[in-house]
Amino acid sequence: MPEDTTTTTATAETEATGSDFITRAIEEDLKTGRYDRVHTRFPPEPNGYLHIGHAKAIYIDYGMAVAFGGKFNLRFDDTNPAKEEQEYIDGIIKDIAWLGADWEDRLFFASDYFEQLYEWAVQLIKAGKAYVDHLSADEIREHRGTLTEPGRNSPYRDRPVEENLDLFERMKNGEFAEGECVLRAKIDMAAPNINLRDPVMYRILHDEHPRTGDQWCIYPMYDWAHGQSDSIEGITHSLCTLEYEHHRPLYDWFIEQLGVYAPRQIEFAPFILSYTVLSKRRLIKLVNEGHVSGWDDPRMPTLAGMRRRGYTPEAIHTLMDLVGVSKANSVVDIALLEHCIRQDLNKRAERRMAVLRPLRVVIENYPEGQVEEVEAVNNPEDESAGMRKVPFSRVLYIEQEDFMENPPKKFYRLAPGREVRLRYGYFITCTGVVKDAQGNIVELRCTYDPETRGGYAPDGRKVKATLHWVSAAHAVQAEVREYDYLFTHEDPNVLQEGENFMKYLNPNSLQVVKPCYVEPSLAGAEPGSRYQFERLGYYCVDPDSSRDRPVFNRTATLRDTWAKVQQAQ
RNA sequence: UGGGGAGUCGCCAAGUGGUCAAGGCACGGGUCUUUGGAACCUGUAUACGUAGGUUCGAAUCCUACCUCCCCAGCCA
User: Fold this and answer.
1) Which residue lies nearest B74, CA-to-C1' measured?
2) CATH 2.40.240.10 for domain A354-468
């Protein structure tokens, strides 16, 4: 009984990961026989780039299909040519593929169904369930009523079927200007649910459509296209966010009037992240006004931006697993996102040494001109990553913040007279500080202990700190871009009258650091490759890199307990 | 004031009448350490919106109330 086996497996898997209300609803539908299979879809509108919030929807849609051995479609809801562009279609496809959701050969467009939708509209008109309205947009709004008052019928509401048919045909044939008339469903202008007050089904748009060109000048509204598109594709579970909850009665109404196959819509809470904005309108504003370099700016919560920043699909997936699925309004702490990427990259990113804010160190007793190749572990979390050689010589760079002339209590890095270890190198002791005319520290004089090669003291003596370093003569110059949250407030929506979210834009969200010195193995690093710079954080090679001048985006810092100690002091 | 949703620790989130108050993040201690990373151990004696009620027993059932979110595009 292969079928039973499949069902059992799917159930076991979903139970193993903890079941959410959607999983339970689907299990119920399968058990009662409402559906005998699972088929979901992700329905983006190609009017912008996908962001981390969409990733949640994709993981739920695709994840449910996988969990139940079902299918998953990608369908663009391209019903508004005024706002949609091919660039966005391409970008969205790339992002979803990157996330790992697989729609196989089922890439669809709502525009594929324009003809069918048109026929169905005619069917509704014939049934006396739709009419052409000549009220202006303003008048329609006026007639709609308010949240507490019922609306009023349009004077055109009871036109004879024949007249509606004729008018609708002429709408399709381009005989009317934009805004002159619309097709409306005839439901109930007094319905408490405003979506049922004779919603517009078609409006006239003399716009070139990315896919259908100038074939149509009437375009279906989302509410008219969406449910039927799901129906056409045989979707069993139309999973969407909470905001569509009160559209469900309308979708059900259309399906019922048409007498076609009915999917089941289930709504879940949207994904919201602290310290960021996710509304398309706002993201577009950030891009258009130049507050970021583009949709893929590494500070952006877009998938394109996060990819460039160095985030992995796996980390995003883990985040969604941890966040879970519910109907409660919630804001996810951005610290959880950071935790996910650190956890992932800790396991897989190779380590390298990079000095971002260099301080020159001369090892006085190290022979001039001598160069040694020391062995360094590529990834202590993954033995198979192997080893590499790093050149060591008399003049090195260390991090400025790894030295203090007058160290406070818990600072145990380098200081005058103190001995520390250079990772994989030697123990060194600071013997002198060289300053410029302004009193700035420009160079450290040190001695090394030749007995400590590799970083071990044969006499067993300990040092409290291990520093990363780079040989000055061998270092590759690099640029590092450090990012902070784009907003200074955890909820950029907390605004007074007349303010807007730009109030919280973080002026220091990008800091370019250069020249930095990185170990020679990083020359020519491939854009997109990720590394952990020891003791600093995770970095991803930016496409702006050139062979002799790599550019790194800081994906995330390492957890920094010293920073906390400092803050506490 | 119409309709639709939601309220469990600082943030997510399990729990669906009987070891009930999971788990993760964050935060605090500690062990270990050639990354002040990672890993490991450990802590946060009143976290179940409020008030009643049903019951031997309620976060879980009932009633009322409170708070928050969404809806009045020819956007999706």
Assistant:
1) A203
2) yes
Q: Residues A517-524: what's their mean pLDDT?
A: 97
* Strand B proximal to A424 Cβ, under 7 A: yes
Right CATH for A7-111+221-340 from 3.40.50.620, 3.40.50.2300, 2.30.30.110, 3.40.50.970: 3.40.50.620
Q: Strand B: which nucleotides have any atom within 7 A of a protein Cβ?
A: 1-8, 10-16, 22-28, 34-39, 68-76
Work out if A137's Cβ lies within 7 angstroms of strand B.
yes
Q: Which of residues 342-401 of A touch strand B (CB under 7 A)?
A: 342-343, 346, 351, 379-381
Task: State the nucleotide closest to A140 in CA–C1' terms.
Answer: B74
Tell me what the mean pLDDT of segment A168-187 comes to.
98
Q: What is the C-alpha separation between A261 and A172, in angstroms, rounded?
A: 26
Q: For strand B, is any atom closer than 7 Å to the CB of A215?
A: no
Mean of the pLDDT values across residues A453-476? 96
Asked whether the predicted pLDDT for residue A6 surpasses 50, the reply is no
CATH superfamily of A113-220: Glutamyl-tRNA Synthetase; Domain 3 (3.90.800.10)
Q: Are A26 and A66 in contact (CB under 8 A)?
A: no
Determine if strand B comes within 7 Å of the CB of A204.
yes
Could you state, in order of their start, the residue ranges of all structural domains in chain A?
7-111+221-340, 113-220, 354-468
Res. A12: pLDDT tops 60? no
Considering only residues 67-96 of chain A, list those whose CB is below 7 Å from strand B: 77, 79-80, 82-83
Instruction: Report pLDDT for A18.
Output: 56
Check residue A3 and give its pLDDT: 29
Q: Which 235-294 residues of chain A approach strand B with CB closer than 7 Å?
A: 242-247, 269, 274
**In Å, what is the CA distance from A329 to each residue of A219, A241, A272, A302, A441?**
33, 11, 9, 21, 52
Q: Which nucleotide is nearest to A246 (CA to C1')?
A: B4
Task: Say which nucleotide is closest to residue A82, CA to C1' distance.
Answer: B75
Question: For A505, which DSSP code?
Answer: B
Instruction: Please state the rounded mean pLDDT for residues A412-438.
Output: 98
Give this complex's ipTM: 0.96
**At A414, phi and psi to the nearest 5?**
-75, 145
A32-41, A154-163, A203-212, A496-505: range with lowest mean pLDDT: A496-505
Round to a whole number and report the distance in Å from the CA of A561 to the C1' of B37: 10
- The residues, ordered by sequence, that sit 6+ positions from A13 with a Cβ below 8 Å of its Cβ are A67
Q: Where are the alpha helices (DSSP H) in A161-266?
A: 161-172, 222-232, 248-258
Distance CA A211, CA A110 (A): 10
User: How do residues A117-170 score in pLDDT, each as one tens digit?
Assistant: 999 999 999 999 999 999 999 999 999 999 999 999 999 999 999 999 999 999
The closest of A554, A519, A477 to A352, measured between CA atoms, is A519
